[in-house]
Amino acid sequence: MSNEQKNKHMTLTDRIEIQECLSKSMTFKAIAKRIGKSPTTVSREVKAHIQFHTNSFVKTDVVCPLLLKAPFVCSR
């Protein structure tokens, strides 16, 4: 067994990169390749940290349906 420890946790840099890539409509596979993680890891990270936002112009309790499936980004 090697003394090297796997990089099991996402760094802040990884999370920022994921956010930027999602805003460019990149796939989980492309993002994963870019940051050196598996697509499943990226997907789980996005799902775990998804946040719902409202703004002062739109008041609604309805969640964008695009947030419920990959890539968990609402472009509306």
Quick structural summary:
39% of the residues lie in helices and 0% in strands. The chain contains 3 helices and no strands.
Can you lay out the helices and strands and say which pair or pack?
Elements lengths: L11 H12 L4 H8 L3 H10 L28
Helix pairs in contact: 1-2, 2-3
Give a verbal description of the structure.
This protein is mainly alpha-helical. The chain has one domain. The chain has three helices and no strands. The protein has helices spanning 12-23, 28-35, 39-48. The protein is elongated. The protein starts with 11 loop residues before the first helix and ends in a 28-residue tail after the last helix. Mean pLDDT is 78; it is low at 1-5.
Given the helix and strand composition, which structural class is it?
Answer: mainly alpha
Mean pLDDT value: 78
**Count of DSSP H/I helices:** 3
Helicity range of the residues? 25-40%
Assembly category: single chain
| N-to-C order of helices and strands | HHH
Features:
76 residues; mainly alpha; 3 helices; 39% helix; disordered N terminus
